[in-house]
Amino acid sequence: MTPSPILKVLSSIQRNGVRALLMGGQACVLYGGAEFSRDTDLVIVSDAANLDRLRAAVFDLDAHPIAVPPFEQRFLDEGLAIHFRCRAAGVEGMRLDVMSRIRGLPDFEQLWLRRTTIDTGEQSIEVLSLPDLVTAKKTQRDKDWPMITRLVEAHWTQTNRPASDAAIDFWLRELRTPAYLTEVAREAPASCRRLAEQRPLLLTALNGDEAALTRLLREEEDREREADRQYWAPLRRRLEALRREHHDRL
After folding, report:
1. Which of 117, 137, 192, 250 lies in the 20 to 30 Å Cα band around 111?
2. Can you tell me the distance from the alpha carbon of 208 to that of 228, in angstroms, rounded to the nearest whole number?
């Protein structure tokens, strides 16, 4: 269940009309892949009007940027995240992280068209679609890969059978559990062969060689981690430069 402070943060975002999609740990909670997260991570439209609406929301939350970068559109457009800490009653200490660009994902308008609306019983929340959330989680961080596994496993176990073609394709693209991936490959061999052009290890899943599949999944993860490191390397250098500039001004 989403804790009430998170709902208060999201209510402020919605009330002020911010065009945003929930991602990160809280999105994982809603999809059944995590038990708890205290941060609120959003992908937003980075334009002047939407950022004005976001300013109104962070004012309501008495939220202030943490260190660098400062809250400016140019930094969002570069791919950096803006981090806020909330101080308003009921959300004290809550962290709000905002981005407008995510490695491997299209622009916000496409993400919005693919979004999921989840009703918590208290309010409806616009969330990054599950496939997009999985892509966003393909980072160099150790904690994200078990989360991907749980997210896709949860979808696999909770989906009614017979499954749709879209669900089967999602599992073949993203399952990281050798036994489950092998099972789906055997149940949908034509789809497996078709998608093997994009994910070659599916042929190994179709052959039922789980030991080899485990090795190939690890190699796939290593490639994604390295791609994420290369993506963030110039952004990290940018952050370090901003930190030095900030320190020199103090």
Report:
1. 192
2. 30
Element at 209 (helix H, strand E): none
Read off φ and ψ for residue 142, nearest 5 degrees: -60, -35
Query: Residues 9-29: pLDDT tens digits?
Result: 999 999 999 999 999 999 999
Strand 95-99 to strand 39-44: parallel, antiparallel, or no bridges (unpaired)?
parallel
Alpha carbon dihedral 106, 21, 100, 143, in 10-degree steps, equals -90
Give the residue ranges of DSSP H helices in the chain: 4-15, 24-30, 48-60, 73-78, 108-113, 130-136, 144-158, 165-174, 178-187, 189-195, 201-207, 210-249
**Top CATH class, 4-132:** alpha beta
Spatial neighbors of 100 by CB under 8 A, at least 6 apart, are: 43, 44, 45, 46, 76, 77, 79, 108
**Can you tell me whether residue 140 is helix, strand or coil?**
coil
pTM of the model: 0.94
For 82-95, letters b (16+ CB in 10 Å) and e give bbbbbebeebeebb
Distance CA 160, CA 148 (A): 20
pLDDT in tens, 106-140: 999 999 999 999 998 888 999 999 999 999 999 99
